[in-house]
Amino acid sequence: AQKVTQAQTEISVVEKEDVTLDCVYETRDTTYYLFWYKQPPSGELVFLIRRNSFDEQNEISGRYSWNFQKSTSSFNFTITASQVVDSAVYFCALSALAGGSYIPTFGRGTSLIVHP
Amino acid sequence: AAGVIQSPRHLIKEKRETATLKCYPIPRHDTVYWYQQGPGQDPQFLISFYEKMQSDKGSIPDRFSAQQFSDYHSELNMSSLELGDSALYFCASSSPAGGQGYTFGSGTRLTVV
Question: Using one digit for the tens of pLDDT, what is the confidence trace for A52-109?
């Protein structure tokens, strides 16, 4: 079975603060994919990043960075110098070859509120 | 670039009515996934199709059915609607390898009154 845990239900910060969203996953597969999606108030799911299990390189994209650590089964997401437009629900997801096909499993999401 | 298209964007139905949601995947994507996201919940997997055949089944109620057509678009048919079916329904598509990425549509917001 595969599972994604986002322990932080809601995070509230003031603009320009840095914030890290935690994601811990469980899977027995050695080949898997991890994702982060952003869901703004408008409701759509916006793809942010995909990482496969063989690539532990951290990644930076503008104000966003991701820290993948297989040793702790974590794939954390940091927003530097947060902005009001970053306010959204962020989902971490895992896709592994469970049952013969890849089906993304989502965490419960972390609601990020950035105050001006 | 073309994205996953879902229609309608919003739908209001009464209890016991039926609804049909449509999903048009990204060209050359042959796998379609349906998810249901209740208020304040994470998306829950319902069902998926690969090459027009059902490939996996999640927590899809028996009142719901789905299929993928020859042009790879998919429809989710929902009958005997209940108030609890009110949710955001997402469709996602992926390339044959699956793990290479899933692109989600903007969702259909179904409200059952």
Answer: 898 888 888 899 999 999 999 999 999 999 999 999 999 999 998 765 678 889 999 9
Q: Could you give the CA distance from residue A38 to residue A82 in angstroms, rounded to a whole number?
A: 14
Q: How many CB atoms lie within 10 A of CB B57?
A: 12
**Cβ contact A38:A98 at 8 Å:** no
Shortest distance between the Cα of A116 and any Cα of chain B, in A, equals: 24
Question: Tell me, what amino acid is at A37?
Answer: Y
| d(C-alpha A47, C-alpha B24), whole Å | 18
Per residue in B27-42, pLDDT (tens digit) is: 888 889 999 999 999 9
Tokens of A17: 């603060």
Which residues of B are less than 8 Å from A43 in CB distance? 88, 106-107, 109
Q: Which of B38, B1, B8, B43 is nearest to B22 (CA)?
A: B8
Q: How crowded is residue A31: how many other Cβ atoms within 10 Å of its Cβ? A: 13
